[in-house]
Amino acid sequence: MTTDSLPGKVAVIGAGSWGTTFAKIAADSGAARKAEVQIWARRPEAAEEINSTRRNTRYLKDTVLPANLRASADAAEVLAGAQLVVLAVPAQTLRERLREFRSLFPKDAVILSLMKGLEVGTDARMSQVIAEELEWPENRIAVLSGPNLAMEIAREEPTASVVACSDLAVAGWIAAACTAPYFRPYTNTDVIGTEIGGIVKNVIALAVGICEGKQMGDNTKASVMTRGLAETTRLAVALGGKTETLFGLSGMGDLIATCSSSLSRNHTAGRLLAQGLTLDEVTETMAQTAEGIKSAQAVLDRATQLGVYMPITENVVAVLQGAISVDELGPRLLARELKPEGVHAS
Ligand SMILES: NC(=O)C1=CN([C@@H]2O[C@H](COP(=O)(O)OP(=O)(O)OC[C@H]3O[C@@H](n4cnc5c(N)ncnc54)[C@H](OP(=O)(O)O)[C@@H]3O)[C@@H](O)[C@H]2O)C=CC1
Ligand SMILES: O=C(CO)COP(=O)(O)O
């Protein structure tokens, strides 16, 4: 697989904020070589809006989409002939969609996951769900993750990211197909570390959002973020990922972006919980995917199976389950036994 033959057709499954923004990146990137990008929207009216107005106002109010980006609610039409298939639906819905669309995937396509969640019940990463459901080879499944708040990228604010695949040439091929003047993807072969960074930062962002909602300042938030990165790294390494990945864009980079930004849905969800909303009210108010809410329990389950200590995750889960109040989160974390700082110290 070489960068001399980049995809002539890219299919994006999911027309939410990130699916649409990534489709814009791929379309901008492929415009000069006349690449076509098609996006699958589950609501026909969303596809119709994209085609007739070049906008997706529910998710990206002010963005005009490129002319070589088209949409359809017909997955067969979108997937036909695609060399690169990009998946961007909420993590908990992925398996069901793959089952529905399984026969439509072009056999030689490379699949790229944009999703940052762990499946509830199986604790599987999205690349694992794809490999399992489609019986797809690992070297043709990649993930993209990094400090990538969709709204900022849709405004073409310069951003970097990481494409990870066990085959570095495939990662390079994808990176070349989605590089744009405002978007710079790096590559690596650490799929596990890259995915875990993106998944767990959502849980840490819930904790930081809670701190913010409780009017706590920057020291508190920096402490949670730094120790959050330590527990994320412990889990990633226990699963086979690399420490250095967690100190890169898909680890520290994404953690900083998500925990610092009011654009983050996970951060916002934490803030709303701290302001007294119930979990149901938070979910209803947001009307967009905050993966950390569902993934937190799966992260904790996986950590428990592996004997990995994740105190922030553990306490966020307790808040989400209503076992402790948001006010108890800080005191419970601070009252723990004192210990050396190292990332791998449990
Ligand atoms: N937004 C961001 O900044 C980033 C998001 N991500 C990740 O990308 C993934 C997708 O998130 P994002 O685009 O933000 O989510 P959004 O909430 O913005 O959009 C979700 C999309 O999925 C569709 N959808 C909802 N339920 C289903 C279902 N059961 N089957 C198929 N499609 C469904 C929605 O359709 P409808 O409109 O009809 O409801 C919508 O098109 C998540 O894992 C997220 O963590 C990663 C990096 C950045
Ligand atoms: O993953 C993201 C930024 O990299 C988006 O974060 P939220 O899902 O919290 O909005």
Explain how this protein is built.
The structure is a single chain. The chain has an 8-stranded mixed sheet, sandwiched between helices. It is built from 16 helices and 8 strands. The termini are far apart. It has 2 domains: 9-189, 3-Layer(aba) Sandwich (Rossmann fold); 192-334, N-(1-d-carboxylethyl)-l-norvaline Dehydrogenase, domain 2, CATH 1.10.1040.10. The protein is globular and about 60 Å long. It has helices spanning 17-30, 44-53, 75-79, 94-101, 126-134, 150-154, 168-177, 191-213, 218-239, 243-246, 249-260, 265-274, 279-286, 291-306, 311-320, 326-334; strands spanning 9-13, 36-40, 69-72, 84-87, 110-113, 141-145, 159-164, 183-188. By secondary structure, the protein is of the alpha/beta class. Bound molecules: NADPH dihydro-nicotinamide-adenine-dinucleotide phosphate and 1,3-dihydroxyacetonephosphate.
